[in-house]
Amino acid sequence: MAEPAPEVGGRRAAADILVQVFARGGNLILGIVVTVLLVRGLGDAAYGQWTTLFAIVQLAVVFSELGLEPAVVSRAATDEEREGDWIGALAMLRLLLSIPASLISAIACLIIADSGEMELAGILLSATLLGSVPSVLRAFNQLRVRNDVTMIVLTVNSVGWLAAVVVLAARDAGIVAYAAAFLAVSLLSSGLQAVLSLRQMRHPMRPARDLWRPIIKAGLALGGAGILMSVGSRAPQIFVFELQGDVQAGLYGAASRLFEQAHFIPMAVMTTLLPIMSTAQRADPDRARRVLETAIDYLVMVSLPGIPLAIVAGGPLLEFLFGVEFAAAAPALPVLLAAFVLVAVTYPLDNMVIVLGLQGRLIFIALTSVTLALTLNPVLIDRMGFEGAAWAVLIVEAVVTVMTYRLVSSRLPFQVVTPRLVRIAIAAVITGLVLWGLDTISAPLFVLVGVTAIGYPALLVALGAINVAELRALARRQPPPQLAD
């Protein structure tokens, strides 16, 4: 008989989140370095082509995933005896979806491409959809709250992609070579994920066809909503390319890359908390509410200081990272980082929607978001250039956050504006005022970044948004009270 899965307590959950945050933080740094090298190696025009192709491929990725993975994790967490069947069925469905998704992606890239090199690069990038199918076995790690394995694979992928970009940049390679390297690294990391994840398997894995229908039923609404929302989030990049050209697309791509890289924080937190929220909601809804409120507080805490830093030092920061020509992208950066705060709030709300079984209600939210995106982007980009795309993202995210909050709170009443959240906002405002004062005396970039990195956490402690005992508990890999059993 298979060994029963151990109970996952707050200590294990807190440790898993910390491992992910540090690992994803390290990978964020690697990703920024890669982006810098990629932008400098390709130039603003070719980088505009790259980011546009990437936006198309990411749309196809959402179609190939169709919301099945979180749906399966939520189900398998409460059906341990058949977890191998659940994940085997997930892998087969992912393969069947990835075949048409990769073809649709390749065709879309061919249609939008404005050169032969861009066409070939689009085909190579589209092939990553098929190559990534084995990576769904990371669901085993998520169920065991062993996401450190997934972080190892992510790090291998980041290091491999960095090495490839360094070599290609030194050789002044074109966009096709970068796409081929990206495909090769993706295949390597996907295979490694499968090998390491299978070690977590306690029950035989088989493509149980009897589970296909419940998986599709559970994931279809979530996946459909994900596709629509992805269209809305990727549309700005494509609209900028089509309406303003590849140079402005490159500027917007540089600013939006920082916005997208920051997603590692809510991803790390919610990867761990989804199975915990699923079991808590069935056994102790009050604990699920506390976990939700705590997740929102901490995600706002880590996302909010980016806004004042971007307002004061957006231009110098982008120039330092990507080159002097990308300083012009500065107006879009604070707007996108404001949108990221809303994204950080929406992550735990979306996960609670899954836990509460309300995925079908997400379709209306997604339809609203994509309608807004397709309406606002052409108008705002035509009037404001690439900066209009950033404002469209912010408006859409605000609407989505409000609608998702109302959906969740209708079933699980909770306090969104907590006393901790008010203290966090005060700390961010004070940080912004200090940065503005330093900027008036022409303080250099490293001083502004240093003040944000040191002064903002100090303000959080001074205002009581974080208490020292809580920090010591986390340092000892112990849970905060809200995650404790």
Automatic annotation (TrEMBL):
Keywords: Cell membrane, Membrane, Transmembrane, Transmembrane helix. This is Flippase. It is found in: Cell membrane. It is a multi-pass membrane protein. It comes from the Bacteria. The chain crosses the membrane at residues 21-41, 47-68, 89-113, 119-137, 149-169, 175-198, 219-241, 261-277, 298-318, 324-345, 352-376, 388-408, 420-438, 444-469. InterPro entries: Poly_Biosynth_Transport. Its main location: membrane. The keyword Chloroplast does not apply.
